[in-house]
Amino acid sequence: MEDRTMLRVLHLGDLDVALPLGAALAAWLLAAGAWRTALRWGACFGAAVVLVGGSKIAHLGWGTDFSMLEFKAISGHATLVGALYPFAAWMLLLRQGQGQIAARVGLALGLLLGLIVAALLVVTGEHTAAEAFSGWLLGAAASLLGAAWSDDLERARLLPAIWWSLPVLAVGAWLMEFAHVGYWMILVALALSGNSHPYPWDAC
Length: 204
Prior knowledge:
Blueprint: H1 2-11, H2 15-31, H3 35-62, H4 76-95, H5 99-123, H6 129-148, H7 158-176, H8 181-193
Helix pairs in contact: 2-3, 2-4, 2-7, 3-4, 3-6, 3-8, 4-5, 4-6, 5-6
């Protein structure tokens, strides 16, 4: 039971879960009229994803490994959980009229969820502490910046606009079934490094 619960929590950071949810959240904000918040948080979220991908490509192509820190690449799961769920909690609680205090509590609980995911990644052996907690810090920075730059959120009309997020979520989930992100990262790493084989890393 505990193992299944841990796996369910870790699945929150899966690419095929978090990326469609992130795209749907940005579409929802755009449709609701909070376009500045959508673009700012979306840029932070996207930058975090690119940094994670770049660190993984660097390891696959060149074998980057900071052995003193036991660090190969940033954890994608920890980053995605930290970048998505805290900001989503902030957005929903702030816009539903719960006030700044409730929104900050939701943001803090979302960050705590990210911290729990980072710890579980270490416990299960998926990542080292340096990889997991660097991912959490990166994701947390994306959420915190998104919350700090959400000045037009209080005027957004979220409820009527939610329907625009559903097709984005459905299409995003469908596309992720064919994305094979790990395969493409290996191809990019080999093309850039000129190596014939990637450096191994099971958790990558």
